[in-house]
């Protein structure tokens, strides 16, 4: 819980803008990269004959892309969290609307 340095209210929230934006960007780029890699691997596998039929190819590719996207989101969110905590005014008082750094006044 953070206290507003302006009005001393404890009715505050963390905004986490950078965490959300960086997480979303990294998730999208990781999803696309994973999907592309998965489809390339699936095509090679089909040629060699090690894939379990035509249904297994797109299913495996999508599952791999989702896993890659989630990993990308976690990495991006962690990066965004560092930006939120150290650079941006990440907290906002719901009583007076004042924005401030969460590291200023943690109670």
UniProtKB/TrEMBL annotation:
The keyword Membrane applies. Keywords: Membrane, Transmembrane, Transmembrane helix. The keyword Transmembrane applies. The chain crosses the membrane at residues 21-39, 51-73. This is Glycine zipper domain-containing protein. It comes from Catenovulum agarivorans DS-2.
């Amino acid at each position: 819980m953070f206290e507003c340095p302006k009005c001393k209210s404890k009715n505050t929230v963390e905004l986490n803008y950078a965490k959300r934006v960086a997480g979303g960007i990294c998730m999208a780029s990781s999803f696309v990269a994973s999907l592309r890699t998965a489809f390339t691997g699936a095509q090679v596998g089909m040629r060699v004959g090690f894939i379990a039929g035509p249904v297994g190819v797109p299913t495996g590719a999508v599952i791999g892309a989702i896993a890659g996207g989630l990993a990308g989101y976690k990495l991006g969110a962690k990066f965004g969290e560092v930006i939120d905590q150290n650079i941006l005014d990440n907290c906002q008082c719901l009583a007076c609307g004042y924005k401030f750094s969460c590291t200023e006044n943690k109670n």
